[in-house]
Fold this sequence. Notes:
Elements: E1 10-16, H1 23-33, H2 54-59, E2 66-72, E3 75-81, H3 89-96, E4 101-107, H4 114-126, E5 130-135, H5 144-155, E6 159-161, E7 163-166, E8 174-177, E9 182-186, E10 192-195, H6 199-219, H7 221-230, H8 235-248, E11 252-256, H9 265-275, E12 285-289, E13 292-296, E14 305-314, E15 317-326, E16 328-330, E17 334-337, E18 342-345, E19 348-353, E20 356-360, E21 362-364, E22 368-372, E23 382-384, E24 391-392, E25 402-408, H10 414-427, E26 432-435, E27 442-446, H11 449-463, E28 467-469, E29 473-474, E30 477-482, E31 484-493, E32 500-510, E33 517-520, H12 529-542, E34 553-554, E35 556-564, H13 572-589, E36 591-606, H14 610-619, E37 623-630, E38 633-641, H15 648-655, E39 661-671
Parallel strand pairs: 1-3, 1-4, 4-5, 5-11, 6-11, 30-34, 33-35
Antiparallel strand pairs: 2-3, 7-8, 8-9, 9-10, 12-13, 12-24, 14-15, 14-23, 15-22, 16-21, 17-18, 17-23, 19-20, 19-22, 25-27, 25-28, 25-29, 26-27, 30-36, 31-32, 32-35, 36-38, 36-39, 37-38
Helix pairs in contact: 3-4, 6-7, 10-11, 12-13
Amino acid sequence: MRTNQPLTTIRNLGILAHVDAGKTTLTERVLYATGTTHKRGEVHDGTTVTDFDSQERDRGITIFAAAVSCAWDGHQINLIDTPGHVDFSDEVERSLRVLDGAIAVFDAVAGVEPQSESVWRQADRHGVPRFAFVNKMDRVGADLDAAVESIRERLHPAPMVVQLPIGQENEFRGVVDLVRMRALLWADDGGVEEGPVPDALLDEARRRRRVLEEAVAERHSAALEEFCAQQEVSAPTLASALRELTHSGEGLVVLCGSAYRNRGIEPLLAAVIAYLPSPVDVPPVRGVWADEEHERPADPAAPFSALAFKVVVAPTGRLTFLRVYSGTVQKGAEVFDAGTRKPERISRILRVQADRHTEVERAVAGDIVAVVGPKNARAGASLCARSVPVLFEPPVVADPVVSVAIETRSAADTDRLAMALLRTTDEDPSLVVRTDSETGQTLLSGLGELHLEVAVEKIRRAYGVEIFVGRPRVAYRETVLSGVSGLEYKHVKQDGGSGQFARIVLDVEPTDEEELVFQSAVVGGAVPREFVRAVEAGCRDALSEGPLGGHPVTGVHVTLTDGSTHVKDSSEMAFRTAGRLGLREALRASKMALLEPVSEVAVTVPEDAMGSVLGDLAMRRGQVSASATRSGTVTITASVPLAELFGYSDRLRSRTHGRGSFTAKAAGFALAPR
Length: 674
């Protein structure tokens, strides 16, 4: 699609929202409106472009982030449809790392929902400019003002509503563009007609235009100057100010529509071009090399640099998705993986349209493409020119909190399972495979039950491996409640030749820090500095398995107070061994406690089911922190141990006759009952 297109005409953006807010439907309508597709795909029919995976179509939700491209008004839009379920938040995280802008979609009835808030915070961390699209304006109970107020209260931006709905609920048929003061009306066949503001809405439109002008003038100096001089802000000044406020994050443009009924898509595309940044509008990406910081501007003539944000491993080959930050890369070129410090060959470059690909000769700064060739580059890898290397910060990978034990039905499938697990974890870094040292079981860990269920089903479908799955296990931790002082440990080994000798004295106490806090209080050089470092390394080794159940240990403060050496037999290895075995002995002598992972749960149920749901949460050791009532439903927020959430979705559906829903996100660890 792109041939020497200026960078100012490129938009790299994602669609963010709570599950079922209409992200995928909106993506389908964008593709249809831009002429990229000639038939509107539907989630309920399993005919969407971006939800192409068989599990996505079976479940009716987005699971994997999918990239598509389209053209509108001389601009190229590279769009990533992201998942809305909390179990797949890692897909959102990796996508946000490479995007320049985003559209936050909200349900006009529900307003800000739990996962809406989570993805909003993710976008905040990455500093991604965005505007809001209040969807489903045709639903019963749709209320733009209420949705905007929930955005203001829960997300704390400064909403700037640029449209006034024409018609309510099922009668919603258009909007008034408050910037240009023009009306847009949609026909049933999808055509749009522009005209003057209807007389019945003229006073309300003028009032809202005034509110918009005042909100912009408060935050933008040029708009304020014009407002003071002329008592109004012109359309060009208003549009320019809204663009700058969007880029800085000081203001949030709000549009509305109904994606399902194909209403509001054209103004949304115009807003993408008018308000969201191009690659040259965002600051140069920063990286490091040789302890020095380097910048890479969005310039096709600069040295090549790119970040791999997604890997797809299929039987037909391995695709690595790249955001090209600077420079140009040709098909057949050799690039440098700055993380592994190894070369990789780019054999093919592909433009991606969900599950369809078109081969191109090169990719330049601002592009999002897939490449074939790299064999070892994982999600988060920095690819660059060997002569000018740079290492970018990789996306943060969430720690897994739920595990299942998996095994094959027959020993003959063991090797195939190992290969399937390797490919699956290569695609999804938030999945972790390990072997339990005590039971010998293969454990697959992820971010939630659905996350693991999808991964297991993918192994069955894609790789043809029949496997048994055991009950999910939660990832417990151990911590110190009260420690010990002056514990002496002596490591002596003599079996011919050079021996090993190390004597250390440790104090162990609890700390609020998750990582090990280690310090040395040794005086007089009783333990040389290099041996102190070895003791610390040994202590870190000891924290991998605690005395209660072999779980990782957290919240430990260790002080090395004394020690002694042997003139011949002391070594770093001896002191590392002493640190490991000494701390294990100290932990056994300490008062330890088990920590269990806790989830923050938001349960939305009809008011008449509230009592039953609260009782069930209490049985699951849930602690309710808040509740809010709106439009006949109650949203209950509670902290619940993760171990108590297995099977909760089925129980909730049963208690609410299918009308209840819930989302959960990791909220740290808490003391487990004895």
